[in-house]
Structures are given as C-alpha cells and as structure tokens.
Design brief:
Largest interface: A-B, 44 and 40 residues
Number of strands of chain A: 3
Number of helices of chain B: 3
Oligomer: heterodimer
Radius of gyration of chain B: 16 Å
Strand order of the largest sheet of chain A: 1-3-2
Distance between the termini of chain A: 74 Å
Radius of gyration of chain A: 23 Å
Number of helices of chain A: 19
Shape of chain B: globular
Largest sheet of chain A: 3 strands, mixed
Order of helices and strands of chain A: HHHEEEHHHHHHHHHHHHHHHH
Number of strands of chain B: 11
Strand content of chain A: under 5%
Chain lengths: ~400, ~190
Amino acid sequence: MKRRRLLAGACAQCAALASAGAWAQSPASAPWTAPARFLRPELTTDEGGLWSLMDREEGRLRRSPFLIRDAALRDYLQGIACKLAGAHCADVRVYPVRTPFFNASMAPNGMLQIWSGLLLRAENEAQLAAVLGHEIGHYLQRHTVDRLRDAKARAAFGTFLAAFGVVGLLGQMAALASAFAFTRDQEREADAIGLALMRDAGYDAREASKVWDNLRAEAAAAPGGDVALGSPMFATHPPSEERSQTLARLAAEGGPGGGVGEAEYAQKLAPIRFSLLEDEVKRGQYGESLVLLDRMIRRAPELSDQLYFRAEVRRLRDREGDLDVAIADLRQATALGNEPAQVHRSLGYIHQKRGQPAEASAEFARYIELAPDAPDAGLIRTYLLQGQS
Amino acid sequence: MRIPYRALVALLAVAVAGCAAVSKVDSGEALIRNRLVVQVANPWNQFERGLADDTPTWTHEGITVDALQFYVGVRDGALLAPTPSGRKGVEPLTFRASMQPADVMALLQSLLTRDGSSFSLDRLEATEFVGARGFRIEYSMVRKLDEVRLRGVAFGAIRNGELFLINYSAPRLAFFPKHAAEVEALARSAKVRS
C-alpha cells in the first residue's frame, strides 16, 4: 500500500511537470501546474461537509439501478479518466449512469458520473476524454468549492446542496445548475486544462471542439432551433460557436498529433449500444435523435441496428415523407443482414398504416418468428389473426 | 422502500405553487371531465387538475406513491401533457388521431421518461376499452427522482379520433399488487358519455 502511494506520488510529480510543460506551450494561457493530490478536508470545515455529503451520494450511486453494471466498460472508462487525471487517478472513481442525456459531472470527493447520453454521443475516446478532461479540470481547480463558498456568501447554501443531490427532474436540474453555474472564467480554465490533460494523455486535442459542434447541430434540430436546455449540461456548458472556436484554436496552438481511439471506443460500447439507442428513441426528441443517428450512420453505415433506429424515429415522427425514408432504411437494414427483429415490426406498422394488410401480415409474421417472446407479441398476434379473418 | 423524500419535497413545492385541490371520490359511479364514466369500488383522493399537468389524478396512498391518471378525449393535434416550463427545445407530446397503439405507447413512454426515468415494456396486447378496440400496456420503470421501482398498467383506445387513456403506476412490491385488481376493474367499467 505504501509502495503504491509512493508510486502515485512520483507519478503526481511527472504528471504535474508534463501538464505544466504542455500548458507553457500554449502562448494564450498562463502557466499551470497540476496540484498535488487532495487530502480529505476536516469534517468541521465547509469543504469537509461537502465531501461527506458527496460520499453519501456515492454510496447511493453504487446501489443505484441506473448504474451501468458492465465491468469491462467501467474499467475502460476508469482507464481513460486515469490517463487524464495522472497523479489524481487513485482519487477518481468513474460511474457510468444510464440516463439518455449528455452529461458528466465530477464531485469534489472524486466521484465522476458519466451519463449514457454522453457515451452514445462521443464519437471516439478522444471526444469523451475532452469532456472528462474538462470535468477533471474543474476538480483540479476545486471550482465546486469556490461555488460552495459563493453560495454561502449569498445565503443560498440550501439550494446549492439541492443542486448537488442526485440529479432529479431535468428541468429542475437545469434551473439549479444555471443558478449555480461555474463562472465564465472557470469554464475557460476548465476547457484549457482539459485540452492540456488530453494532450498529456496522448489524445488528439482537435476532437474537443467537435463535441460542441455536434451538440450544436443537435440543438439546432430541436423545436425552436436554438441552443437547447434539453440537457442539464447545456445550462452550465453552453455549446456556443465561440466555445468551439476557442477550443479549436487552443488545440491548433498545441500542435497536431495524438490518438483518437475510435475503434476501441466502438468496441467497448458495442455490448450496450442497442440499449442506449433504445433509450435515445424513447425520449421522443425526434429532431435531435435524427441528427445523432445521421452522424452515427455516416461513420458506420454497415450497422443495421442504427438504420432501424433512424427508421423508427421517422416512423414515430410521421411527418410528410418520413415513412418513405423509413422504409428505405428498413429495407437497407434487411439487405445488410443481422437486422434486429424490430425491423419487421416497423415495416408491419407502416404497411398497416398505409392499408396494405397482406404486406403488414408478412412482416408481422416474420417479427413473431424472430421474437416470439417479445413483450408486444400479444398485440402483433392479434393483428395477424385480424389479417386472417 | 426508500422514503421518497426528494419526490415529496419537489411535489410539495409544485402542489403549493399550483394550489392543487384535493377532493374525495366516493364509491359508485364517477364522472371524469364530463366524458368518462367509471365504477369506483373504494374511495380515492382526487387531484382534479393533477400536479401541474392538468390531468385528473387519483391516489390511494399519496400522490408520490401511487397515481391513477385519466387522459380524457384528447383530440387530434392536442398535447397528451403540457411541456414543463423551463424546458426549452423539447418536442411536444402531440397526439394524432392516426396513431397506432404502439405509437400511443411511445407517447406515454416519452412522457414517463422525460425526467430521466427508465421505462421498460412488459406486455402490450389488444383489449376492448371504452367500447372500442383498444390496448393494454404493462410496464416497469425506475423513477429518476428517488429511484423507486414502479410497475404500471395503462388502458387506451382511440374512439372517433379522440384518445382515452387511463394510466396507473405504483411501487412494484407492495402498492401495485395491492391496487392492481381494483384499477383493472375500474378500467373495464369505463364508458364514454356522448
């Protein structure tokens, strides 16, 4: 144990030096050195109280039904966080959480939550590292403690704690997060530190701005076409054009190079990708989901399940022309093979809606053949019986 | 079971803000929104306008525990439930008369998961409801707010272009089994007053 601590301490110095070096290479930024590992604050202090509260939340999170219990994925994510956190690796504990919104947050005690909506949206390891690096940047600079003290000064401590409880109603979370958002300077600082950590960990820092570009494209497709508050993270991290441009500029100043890790990321996500896409469609946010799925299909056109989900979004949205495009996707999914059984159910529904009972029955029959125990098999069998009568 | 403290606080705040009026629904025949008639076996507590969603909601155990909601005569183009204030850029939950049962289920699913709760379908089958060809949904969910595991059952039908939907959910271990049969009978008794 002592040896491990010693090694961690030595790594801390290496990482600090490396980060400082990378930081110094950026002419736009002041030199920055990663702090030494944080000691647990005294319980009698405000920071100690906050840690204690977060420890309790972390205990709850470990038992949470929303925790994604995929050991391989969690180890992989922990590895990414460790690469970024350097000497602080031993203090960072990663928890992937099943919630289909783009969000990650890091508590002062080292609890790092990554929501499944972020996992689905990151295109590669480097993009995920950009978001995690940013959050770790807030952690290293102890911005949350600053927020706590600011809230206390404004006699708003109770609301601050409420904001840091388990993320409840998203709208409420967004409002609270907005009320206690990091300052613009803190955000800029976390962005710059995140980029430095990315570079130190060997990632291509140019991927960072793409995260926000992609989010802006999704937000533009939401009703109103404006940057949305659909994700709680948007309340504190507006995906503005200015932010993307600044990140791109800072990344360019750091020079080219670094890995992206697309193949490994896709491989690690593969076991849960279908369920993440199911959760995405359940949101009913059709415009955003279509932008996301268009992007995913451009990157991996050979995956029939992605075509199914895009078709399903269009089938449910059912605007003019949607069903024709959905049929084309479903046919393409079938042609690719290994299509999910639900492809045939979707085709059945579309034919049924169009008054084509024979075609609908054929597709429904195929669905039941492939998925006889599906939870909606009862309804589909009724359709088949009605088709026969 | 975890005490739904956060749910209680949040819903109390909503209730106070909206001055939600509670009344008693006695045994016998009950009329909802002047359209839907149901036979009530045991008295319920009624929130006539629900909690900030303008949906008549009944409860036996308390509104943070079990809830029976009535969507009565939702017309083509109308919303199943209003979009929460403070949420921008969110697709409205619009009902269309051309919807199939699975589409209505997807709409209900979007409503129930928009706070980040999880939803999984256990059973979807055809059934008669309000004198029309309808459907019955069984589902499980975990409420994001307090991580309580719920079970739910919903009955729906589109009748003359209008949606009639009854949805009941309660914690899965004690309260759902306690009241499920009563809710089932209530739904089977539902009729539309023309």
